[in-house]
Amino acid sequence: MPYRTIIEPFRIHSVQAIDLPDAEEREEALRQAGFNLFGLHADHVIIDLLTDSGTGAMSSEQWAGMMRGDESYAGSRSFYRFESIVKDITQMTQVIPTHQGRAAERILFSVMVDEGDVVPNNTHFDTTRANVEYRGAEARDLVVPEGRDPAIDLPFKGNMDIDALRATIEEVGRDRVPLVMVTVTNNSGGGQPVSLQNLRDVRAVCDEYEIPLFLDACRFAENAWFIKLREPGHEHRTPAEIAREMFSLADGCTMSAKKDGLANIGGFLALNDDEIAARCRNLLILTEGFPTYGGMAGYDLEAVAQGLAEVLDENYLRYRIRSTAYLGEKVAAAGVPIVQPPGGHAIYLDAKALLPHIPPHEYPAQSLAVELYRNGGVRGVEIGTVMFGRPSPDGGPDEPAAMELVRLAIPRRTYTQSHIDYVAEVVIDVASRAESLRGLRMVEQAPWLRHFTARFEPL
């Protein structure tokens, strides 16, 4: 059969108008927001690739499920459907709903992590790192060396460095490592997947030292699809079978259902340890809600349950991964440096390579993200020294992040090919005059997760 275009495996059921602010309006919006794209009004954005978290379109079956939502305070049937589907996928015995992933992280780390501990991860994302550090612990990134080089094209650049994991445990002592975490896919590292073999190797080290292993499972289905495509011996397995093996290697997981749950809100913490689960539920009741709703309405529980049932469909995953790669291939063919190979949920532009004249303390990735919005109303997000750099204690330049990236995260089932073609045109146009871009000065920042609210001035 000849090659054919991979089409969207759905029809558009309803539409939402896109505002088209002109260049003058976009410039004023930037000024009002302090050149921080998080501060923009959504009405001022043409194509919004800030995040894929909670921004996708839900299916007709999800909307139908929401109409069936049981809003009973305790013991609603919507919870039990949600719990059944989570248990079927993860095979874990304890399921604790939360309003989103960061709530699951906060509860888990509040119970398991103490001051002075070290939590290894392939790469922590922003809220995970912040919740670890808020406990007075160290969030240590141990991705394989190839994962720090955007240009290298390898199938599993999200893998954890096994030697570095063992060395970390030996260095700090087993008693200071309360858990090991692996993020699938590795968001901060370019949306790169983790192989099953690497998860098995991490599991073996955890067993050797008797340390629990947890997954940050926000994009577990996309990771399972990459394993099917790229890891020998798994090409004939279903994504659901691969996902179950991934979860079988872990003692627990946190999940933002706003990603591979295909929902606009929601998440969960799942684990096998009854004693830890009981302590987590005590905290859940304190800040999130009763254990059978955990901060979610019954209709949200229904939407997440249905989304988890849909996300492992092979037709959906084939379209999802291929449509993301389409954008990466188009801009890379024009000479724009990106993290290779394209990730599952986003394309990551390499601002360090594109803007070598802007030093890290002048935030080249933030400058690039601002220019994409200025040029075409495309909103992405900086993943570089603004997000992960550390302010100098003596007031000097920030300690730079390992990479300077702009993430263009593609919401699920939301934009068509023509939207993505437009994004590519904007990226290519900005890249063609990269030498004219200048850096930014940060004039205001918060002590935690500063990238959400920081303000900048152009240099």
Question: Can you give a write-up of this model?
Answer:
With 459 residues, this protein is α/β, with parallel strands linked by helices. The chain folds into two domains: 23-52 and 313-458, Aspartate Aminotransferase, domain 1; 60-311, Aspartate Aminotransferase, domain 2, CATH 3.40.640. The protein is 40% helix and 12% strand. It has helices at 23-32, 60-67, 77-90, 101-112, 126-134, 162-172, 196-209, 220-230, 239-248, 274-287, 298-311, 314-333, 351-354, 364-376, 385-388, 417-432; strands at 47-48, 94-98, 118-121, 138-141, 180-183, 213-216, 252-256, 267-271, 346-350, 378-379, 381-383, 405-409, 440-444, 455-458. The strands form five sheets. The chain has a five-stranded mixed β-sheet with strand order 2-8-7-6-5, sandwiched between helices. Strand 5, helix 7 (196-209) and strand 6 form a beta-alpha-beta unit. Helix 2 packs antiparallel against helix 11. It is globular and about 60 Å long.
CA-based shape: globular
Task: Tell me what the CATH architecture of the largest domain is.
Answer: 3-Layer(aba) Sandwich
SS-derived structural category: alpha/beta
Task: Identify the CATH homologous superfamily of the largest domain.
Answer: Type I PLP-dependent aspartate aminotransferase-like (Major domain)
Query: How many DSSP helices?
Result: 16
Strand order across the biggest sheet?
2-8-7-6-5
Portion of residues in helices?
Answer: 40-55%
Measured by DSSP, the beta-strand proportion falls in 5-15%
